[in-house]
Design brief:
single chain; 210 residues; mainly alpha; 2 strands; 54% helix; globular; disordered N terminus
Length: 210
Amino acid sequence: MSFSKCPAPWVGHFCFGLFTNAFSVNFNTAKIIRMDKGELIGLLHQHHNAFIRDLANHTDQEFRFAPEGKWSAAQQLDHLIKSVAPVTLAMALPPFLLQWLFGVANRPSRSYEALVEKYHCKLGEGGRASGRFIPKESKTLPQKRLLRKLERLVDRLCKRTEKMDEQSLDTYLLPHPLLGKLTLREMLYFTAYHAEHHRLLVKKGLTGYH
């Protein structure tokens, strides 16, 4: 996959106000390769379990080691928890409330590959975590307790995803601080990829420790 050329910027903006003109969406996505919710749940477990396994094997010193100007493994973990938690919460909201808060999609869901490419483009443009997604200092973060917390969050997210129907995943929206409004399916794509992205960042960061 190449990230050398970014797609045209998506002009959608966050919207937290009232959407008074409700409408239904019926997209023909035959040409878009997408994961069904079973595949999505499998990918969520796969990537988060790999992240959790890697960090569970870290010594305390490795867990808290931070390369110059970068996050430690502890902070990468805290960031993932802060990112997964609101998605898990949103997946429990009734559809009418999701529509009232964020509206409904006027386009098909992107593929997993297209979503990942868009994310890398935003990172290449200087996009970074901000606000409530910035992790705490490493010394305040308990390793085992936070790993268990992430595992429980992902399990809860997957159970809530299982209860959603496929059409709802392509209809309702959630806001992302870098990517704008995403369909629920796209947000789950991002959440799965995000864990693998940060697992690789932790691995790269530890090359300076050993």
